[in-house]
Design goal:
- By secondary structure, the protein is of the alpha+beta class.
- The protein contains 17 helices and 23 strands.
- It has a 7-stranded mixed β-sheet, with helices on both faces.
- Helix 2 (109-119) packs across helix 3 and helix 10 (243-251) crosses helix 15.
- The termini are far apart.
Amino acid sequence: MTSQKLLLGIDVSTTGAKALLIDEVGRVVSSATTPLTLFTPRPLWSEQDPREWWAGVTQSIRQALAQAGLTGSAILAIGLTGQMHGLVLLDGQGDVLRPAILWNDQRTGPQCDEIRSRLGKERLIQITGNDALTGFTAPKLLWVQQNEPEIYAQGRHVLLPKDYIRFMLTGEYAMDKADGSGTILFDLSQRTWSQEILAALSIPSEWVPPTYEGPEVTGTISPQAAAETGLLPGTPVVGGAGDQAAQAVGVGAVQPGIIALTLGTSGVVFATTEAPLIEPQGRLHAFCHALPAHWHFMGVMLSAAGSLQWYRDTLAPEVDFADLVAEAKNVSPGSEGLLFLPYLTGERTPYPDPLARAAWVGLTVRHERAHLTRAVLEGVAFGIKDSFTLIQQAGLGAISQVRVSGGGAKSPLWQQIMADVLDVELVTVNTTEGAAFGAALLAGVGAGIFTSVPAACEATIHLTGRVQPSPARTAYRDFYPRYRALYPALVSEFRTMAGVVSQRLGAGKTQ
C-alpha cells in the first residue's frame, strides 16, 4: 500500500474542508471533512475566516492519510477546488486583512449598479460574459474600497477561497482561469484579466495573481506546509477549478452536448462549449472551463431540491421523502393543470430577481397532496428547462445527454420527470465525490497519469444508470409554455407585494 501513488483533491466549501484520496483508476481510498463556521454579522452578510479554512484543510489531510495508513510520500499531485467568487484580501506579507466575503453575501447591490454605470451593462457582458451580480468578486472588492478604505489601503493581493489554500500550501499567489472568470474581472475570450475592467474599478493590476489552466502545475508543497499537513515537500499543486467546473470534470461533462445537472438545494446546469459564447442579456453565466481551451455556460436555480425540502418540512413533516414522492407517481403528467413556481428564495436563471416568489397556480378541490407533490417535482423540472432553453438559444446546439447528481437525483420518479421535461437521456455515474474528485483528476493530468482531462474522465467515470424520455414528454410540451407564462404575468405583483410586506413590517416595529 505504501508504494501506491495517489491523487489528493482538496475542496473548501462553505460547510467544510474536504480531503479526498483516489487512485489512478478513480477508486476512493479515503476521505475526511472538517466542518467550517459561517458568520452572518449583519443582515445579508456572509463571511468566513480564511485561517479556519487552512486549519480545516490541514486536519482533513492528516485524517485522510491516517485513515489510509499512508504518509505524504504516497501523494503524487494535489488539485484544489472550492466555493466560487469569495473575496480573500491579503496585505503585502500575505496576512488576511478581513474575513472573506462569500458567494452568497448580498450586501453589494449598490456596487453592482455602479459597475454597470462605469462600464455599461452591454460592455460588461461583452467582456466578461456576465452581468454584475452580488455573488461575484468584483462588487465585493468595490464594497471594501468604498466602505473600509483603511483596510483597502493595506491590500496587495486578491485571491479566491481555494487559492488562499494554494498560497498556504506553496507560498505562491496563483489562480486557475475557470475560477478567475467568475470574478467578472476577466476577459472571457482571452482567458486572462481585463485591464479595462480593472482600470474602470480602480483595482491595481498587480493585486490579481497569474492564472493557469486547471491541470497546470502552479507550485509545490513548501517545507512549512509539509510540516503542518504531513505532505511531502515538493509535491506539485495544479490549478484546479471552482466547485462547479470541478464538479463537471468529476462527472465527465467535458465535451459539448453532455450537460452536468446538479440537483442539490439549488439546481445547477453546466454546459461545456468550445468557444467563449455569451447570452446577450447575461441571463446565463459564461465562464472558462477547467478544461484548457474550453468554456462553459452555467444556469443556476436557487431552490431545486430545496423546494421539495421546504414542501415536505412545512406541509408533510411526518411523511418520509420516499413515501411522499411515491404518492405522486400515480398522478398524471401535468398534475391535472396544477403548476408550481419554485421561486422560494427568489431566482437567478432565467430571472435574476430576488423578489420572485413561489406559487401554486391552478388549484381546485380535486387536487390532493399527491398532486401538490408532483407539481413541485414538475415545477423544478420546468425551471431547469429554462436554463436548457437559454443555453440552446445562445448557440450550444444539440444536447445528447444529461449527467445528473445531487440529492434530488436519488428519486427515480424525479429522474423520469426530468428526462421527459428536458426530452433527453438522463444518466447517473459511478462518482459521488463531486468537486473534490474532479480536482483530483486535474491533478492526475498535471502529474502525467492521464494525457488529458477527457482521458482522465474516460478512465475513471462510468455510467451506472440510464433514463430515457417516456411518452409523457408530449404532455409536458403542452404544460411548459403555461409555466413560462406565469412569471411575466405575476412579476409586477411580486414587486408590489414585497413593498406592501416591507411597509407593514416597518409599521409593526413602530407600534
